Each structure stands twice: as C-alpha cells, then as structure tokens.
C-alpha cells in the first residue's frame, strides 16, 4: 500500500536549522518530492530527489534519502520567517507522472 | 510561462448546484492532474490525464464527479449535484515527460458548498 507519514508540527527558532522528516512505505517509489504551501496558496515545488540518490543540496535546502529505512528528510539551513509554511512530502511511482501520494504536511512554525 | 491557471479561485454554491472548475496547464505539458485538499484527508489525487486521455480516475469519489480534457490546454472538473462534503480546495497540476515529470501546481480553487 501507499502511505506517507509526517509529523504535523515543527517549531524552530529563527536562524536555526529545520529538519522535516518523512517516511514512506512503497520501496518502488521513483521520485520523492518536497512541496511548500503558504497560507491560502497553492503548492510550490521546492525540490525532488530521484530514488537512486541519497543526497541533494540546493542552496539552503538539503534532502537526505535513506532508501533502506524509507526515510526522507528536508533540512532548511538558517530558517527565516518566510519559511513558515506547510511542507509536504510526496512520492511517485513507478514513473514520476503517475500521480503523487502526499503526506499530511508538516506545519513549520518559526519562533523569533 | 504563467504557470498552471485555475478558475475560479473561490466558489461558493448551494447544495445541489452544479459546480465546474477549470484548469489551463502549462503549455507543452502532457500530463494533467486534479487533486483535492481537505483538513481530514489531506491531498488526494482524483484523476489524471496523459495527452488528453484519462489514465486513472480511481480517486474520483463518486459518480457526481466528472472530469474532461477536450484539448491540451484545458480541463474541467465538474460536480453535479454538489454536496457540503465536497467543500475543499481543488488543485490542478501539470507535468511534462521531457522534464522529469515533476508536477507544477496551480493556485487552487476554494470550493464551499452550503
């Protein structure tokens, strides 16, 4: 079956690193994605990682994939107030365009 | 490119009325997806098209829901008759096989059925 799990909330201080975790169940996932949703807005693609990679870095974002444990994480360095949003982990299989299965989203709360 | 365009952005209607949501995918994209987002169920895939052909509609909740894609630049999601439990945000997304099939989302239509 397909299931993507995330914590509902994460609170961090401004300037610290945020690490948002996700677990998925289907080992045949091809791509794993992180999307960001700000209040009242649509989903913005942040980054994605192909399942044969274990790390991807893009400016302040670092994605780590542990395929053995089916664990995906998103690290945001130097968290800013503008990073406050809901972050969704999503998996797709067997090809990227066969529809995404999303987690429920993690609300990232930034403390001053 | 303007991105994925959805209309209307907000829709308030009464139970029993027909609702039509519209989507214009990114030009050149050959996949189109309809998702629904609710607090209880999160984001759910309803249906997707490839080259205007419906591929998987197993997520469509009931026969009251129907989707069409008459051409590569337009799709509709119709609910007839609408019910209060259909209240949600409906997202359209598109993807191109030539760009890693990454899905790009529209801003969503917020539907409230009274």
Write a structural description.
- The complex is a heterodimer of chains A (112) and B (114).
- Chain A has strands at 4-6, 9-13, 18-24, 31-37, 43-50, 55-58, 61-66, 71-76, 85-92, 100-102, 106-111.
- Chain A is mainly β and 112 residues long.
- In chain A, strands 2, 4, 5, 9, 10 and 11 form a six-stranded mixed β-sheet that branches.
- Chain A is globular.
- With 114 residues, chain B is an all-beta fold.
- Helices cover 0% and strands 54% of the residues of chain B.
- In chain B, strands 2, 4, 5, 6, 9, 10 and 11 form a seven-stranded mixed β-sheet that branches.
- In chain B, a hairpin with a 2-residue loop joins strand 7 and strand 8 (74-79).
- At the A-B interface, strand 4, strand 5, strand 9 and strand 10 of A face strand 5, strand 9 and strand 10 of B.
Topology at a glance:
The complex is a heterodimer of chains A (112) and B (114).
Chain A: E1 4-6, E2 9-13, E3 18-24, E4 31-37, E5 43-50, E6 55-58, E7 61-66, E8 71-76, E9 85-92, E10 100-102, E11 106-111
Parallel strand pairs in A: 2-11
Antiparallel strand pairs in A: 1-3, 3-8, 4-5, 4-9, 6-7, 7-8, 9-10, 9-11
Chain B: E1 5-7, E2 10-13, E3 19-24, E4 31-38, E5 42-50, E6 53-56, E7 65-71, E8 74-79, E9 88-95, E10 104-105, E11 109-113
Parallel strand pairs in B: 2-11
Antiparallel strand pairs in B: 1-3, 3-8, 4-5, 4-9, 5-6, 7-8, 9-10, 9-11
């Amino acid at each position: 079956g397909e299931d993507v799990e995330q914590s509902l909330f994460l609170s961090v201080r401004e300037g610290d690193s945020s690490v948002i975790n996700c677990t998925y169940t289907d080992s045949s996932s091809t791509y794993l994605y992180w999307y960001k949703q700000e209040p009242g807005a649509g989903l913005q693609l942040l980054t994605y990682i192909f399942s044969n990679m274990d790390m991807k870095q893009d400016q302040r974002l670092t994605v780590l994939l542990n395929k053995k444990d089916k664990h995906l994480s998103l690290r945001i360095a130097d968290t800013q107030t503008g990073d406050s949003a809901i972050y969704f982990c999503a998996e797709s299989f067997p090809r990227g365009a066969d529809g995404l299965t999303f987690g429920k989203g993690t609300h990232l709360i930034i403390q001053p | 490119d303007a991105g994925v365009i959805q209309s209307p952005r907000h829709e308030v209607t009464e139970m029993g009325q027909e609702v039509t949501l519209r989507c214009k995918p990114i030009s050149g994209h050959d996949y189109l997806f309809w998702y629904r987002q609710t607090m209880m169920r999160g984001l759910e895939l309803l249906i997707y098209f490839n080259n205007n052909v419906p591929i998987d509609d197993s997520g469509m909740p009931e026969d009251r829901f129907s989707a069409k894609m008459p051409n590569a630049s337009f799709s509709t999601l119709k609910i007839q008759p609408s019910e209060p439990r259909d209240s949600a945000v409906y997202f359209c997304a598109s993807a191109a096989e030539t760009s890693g099939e990454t899905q790009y989302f529209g801003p969503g239509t917020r539907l409230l059925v009274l």
